TrEMBL record:
SMART domains: RING. Residues 109-132 have a biased composition (Basic and acidic residues). PROSITE patterns: ZF_RING_1, ZF_RING_2. This is RING-type domain-containing protein. The keyword Transferase does not apply. It comes from Bathycoccus prasinos. One of its GO terms (molecular function) is zinc ion binding. Residues 109-139 are annotated as: Disordered. Residues 32-72 form the RING-type domain. Keywords: Metal-binding, Zinc, Zinc-finger. The keyword Zinc applies. Pfam families: zf-C3HC4 (PF00097).
Length: 139
């Protein structure tokens, strides 16, 4: 019985369930360990793979002193006296790109939700365009 119930739950809307989980995982991995916002100019500590905004991490790193990852806080892994030059902290272009995409995704979602409440005419126009395209395809 238990197995059957689980199966039913999963099949209600497996696609949606998937998207929600992915968004959570994405958000978690794209969050700055310091300011807890979506990363801006993502920089990743190569020792522990913690990620920070460039502004956040650079405000903590003091050139000429021994630096440590602000998220770990431990002195186990030293980042050296110049973490950026020594490539202990690197600009994470891939993560940065993901953050941008994720932000756009969130913004788009907000725009769509706002639009629905205010305008009904917009949807009708869209339908007409769709019909025109469909008839052209037929001919
Ligand atoms: Zn930050
Ligand atoms: Zn760390």
């Amino acid at each position: 019985m238990l197995k059957r119930r689980r199966g039913q739950n999963a099949s209600i809307n497996p696609a949606l369930e998937h998207i929600e989980v992915d968004a959570d995982i994405l958000r978690a991995s794209l969050t700055c360990e310091m300011c807890k916002n979506i990363l801006r100019e993502a920089n990743t500590v190569t020792e522990c793979l913690h990620s920070f905004c460039f502004q956040c991490i650079s405000s903590k790193m003091i050139v000429g002193q021994s630096n440590y990852c602000p998220a770990c806080g431990s002195s186990d892994s030293s980042l050296g006296v110049n973490p950026f030059l020594d490539k202990k902290i690197i600009t994470d272009g891939r993560k940065n790109h993901l953050c941008q995409t994720f932000r756009e995704m969130l913004e788009e979602k907000e725009v769509v939700e706002d639009g629905k409440g205010e305008k009904e005419g917009g949807e009708k126009e869209g339908e007409k365009k769709g019909e025109e395209q469909a008839s052209m395809e037929e001919a």
